[in-house]
């Protein structure tokens, strides 16, 4: 008999794989110095969210880490500006998804909710923005794991959100 992995186990595997990719991406700009870099197409946060919520959070968090590393190492002003815009989209996606989890599916699947969550993020001091994005990411991952085990509405997500 073949054991079937549970949804939380699959989510954990995907998260670990995304972290491994993020680590690899931070080293990539140093290895490709002087070479032409492929252009990354702009991805609509809402369309990525609608197709795969967990994948959206992971992809956007990966984009944030990769573009932050690019912005630090690059001396080209346009590359830094592009990295900054991608980083902003990454934060917007994480907050959009966290707002959806905390507000309920019917209330937060709107561009207005995403914009409100992002404005709250943008108002924070720079040093707190990364911590807040990670907190929302943990809320999203906890809620996804709860959905996989049938524990939607457990005390884990609201407790994390209140910190």
Q: Care to describe what's here?
A:
This protein is an all-alpha fold and 163 residues long. It has a domain at 52-161. 77% of the residues lie in helices and 0% in strands. It has eight helices and no strands. It has helices at residues 7-31, 45-51, 53-73, 77-103, 105-108, 111-122, 126-148, 156-161. Helix 1 (7-31) runs parallel beside helix 3. The relative contact order is 0.12.
Q: What keyword list fits this structure?
A:
0% strand, 77% helix, 8 helices, 163 residues, disordered C terminus, globular, mainly alpha
In short:
The protein is mostly helical. It is built from eight helices and no strands.
What is the topology?
Elements: H1 7-31, H2 45-51, H3 53-73, H4 77-103, H5 105-108, H6 111-122, H7 126-148, H8 156-161
Helix pairs in contact: 1-3, 2-3, 3-4, 4-6, 4-7
Low-confidence runs of at least 5 consecutive residues: 19-33, 38-52, 151-163
Q: Got a strand count?
A: 0
Fraction in beta strands = under 5%
- Counting helices, strands and paired strands, the structural category is mainly alpha
Whole-number average pLDDT?
58
Tally of individual helices: 8
Distance between the termini: 44 Å
Helix content: over 70%
* Rg calculated over all Cα atoms: 17 Å
The ordered H/E elements are HHHHHHHH
Strand count, sense and barrel status of the largest sheet are:
none
- Overall, the morphology is globular
